[in-house]
Amino acid sequence: CCSLDADKYENDPELEKIRRERNYSWMDIITITRDKLPNYEEKIKMFYEEHLHLDDEIRYILDGSGYFDVRDAEDKWIRISMEKGDMITLPAGIYHRFTVDEKNYVKAMRLFVGEPVWTAYNRPADHFEARERYVKFLAQTA
């Protein structure tokens, strides 16, 4: 999308512009590493469980690195490598999972439109309207 400088995330006009344009009103920062994240092992397992959300998932990597895995139209995994400065938007209804790499460290900004809803629906979750909308969208772009 753009070139963001993760070192100046606290005061970055580019980031502010994105947040304004996309209405990302809510924001926090999560550090996924053994000594910073309570229940690290449990959380890592949870993030890696295939799931979807009813809202978009927006992540901006401030430091470290990791992987988002998403399903393609044929239901095969695609691995997306994320590192410092990368931002990703996973659409509502897409099956995905996240994992750290061998460094076991990532610091990410979580952005949200309105109040955050963290509910993850593990697969199968095909009955949700968000999933049906996403599947329709995939069919149109195929």
From TrEMBL:
It holds the Pfam family ARD. Ni(2+) binds at H51, H53, E57, H96. Pathway: Amino-acid biosynthesis; L-methionine biosynthesis via salvage pathway; L-methionine from S-methyl-5-thio-alpha-D-ribose 1-phosphate: step 5/6. It is a peripheral membrane protein. One of its GO terms (cellular component) is cytoplasm. Coiled coil: none annotated. Catalyzes 2 different reactions between oxygen and the acireductone 1,2-dihydroxy-3-keto-5-methylthiopentene (DHK-MTPene) depending upon the metal bound in the active site. Fe-containing acireductone dioxygenase (Fe-ARD) produces formate and 2-keto-4-methylthiobutyrate (KMTB), the alpha-ketoacid precursor of methionine in the methionine recycle pathway. Ni-containing acireductone dioxygenase (Ni-ARD) produces methylthiopropionate, carbon monoxide and formate, and does not lie on the methionine recycle pathway. Also down-regulates cell migration mediated by MMP14. The keyword Membrane applies. This is Acireductone dioxygenase. The lineage of its organism: Eukaryota, Metazoa, Chordata, Craniata, Vertebrata. Its EC number is 1.13.11.53, 1.13.11.54. It comes from Propithecus coquereli. It is an enzyme of class 1 (oxidoreductase). It is found in: Cell membrane; Cytoplasm; Nucleus. Keywords: Amino-acid biosynthesis, Cell membrane, Cytoplasm, Dioxygenase, Iron, Membrane, Metal-binding, Methionine biosynthesis, Nickel, Nucleus, Oxidoreductase.
